[in-house]
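Hello support,

Our group uses your service weekly, and this is the first time we've seen a run hang past the timeout. The protein is Putative contactin-2-like isoform x1 panstrongylus lignarius. I'm not sure whether the cause is the sequence or the server load. Input pasted verbatim:
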Amino acid sequence: GPCSIQEQFFFYLIHILSANIYVKKMKVLVTYTTFLVLFLNVQARSYFQRDDYTSTYEDDEQQNSLSPVGSGGTGVRKNSNELMKDFVKITSSTEGVIKVKQGDTIELECTAVGSFTPSVDWYKGDIPVTYGEDNNYITKFGVTRMVVRYIEDCAQLKHEGTYTCQAESGSASMTSPSVTVFVSEKMSPRMLKNGGSCKQDQKLARITRYSPVVMHTMGTDAKLLCRARGFPRPYVYWTDKSGNILDTSAGSRYKILDSGDLIIRNLRWPDMGVYMCVAENSVGKDIISTFLYPMLDD
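Update from on-call engineer: The timeout came from a worker crash unrelated to the input. Re-ran successfully.
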């Protein structure tokens, strides 16, 4: 989907800073708190041991790190496990009351940010209606912003109920305000046309789980999520910000899993940037963007 004004500004800022790094060989400091508040919309100070973290950018990719800065302004590097605490925050979710007719589409969306790769899913009561999975590509330090959509193409009476979004990361967890879905006994024009049936020959390709922002440790394999649904089953591919399809042939550092997720092997500093996931079928296509920021493994 389209980037917010804050995200567009941050991408531009990163572009300018990167240009300064390589052209003017300047050292630029950006406070980590500002980084997260601006880009991820979370209060980072409550999640870290200190409130004076900075991100340090230098010409050498090995100097790219998150490290606390002491009162004297000198960077002090610590083990990344000491820096990161488990945290998760739901920054937005569908809430309130939704009224639909039978045959209409129900769509709920939840956005959360958390340490490493948070687990985010929608629940109807105590029953999950979306299904994530554990991240097998563990980073020693990381922050991920996750978007999960619950889409029901043909609402039925059984879909009526109260839904919540639940997010977890390690020992931290959060539950969103609830959204109540009411399904009328009246049928939508589409359902009436199908003789009261929910049978659909085609369903638009939709991306239901992705990460708009990923901060991941360099030297490890990064995983960018992109889960899609639709009928016929969508074909999923990834491009760079210029629209060039990524090379996933044998020997490439890029690999697309059957799930649609992109693996970037042995993450490096030059991998920083915007990646686009495209899910496409004969009905249409859906596109999302992920900003990847490589972090140093202290």
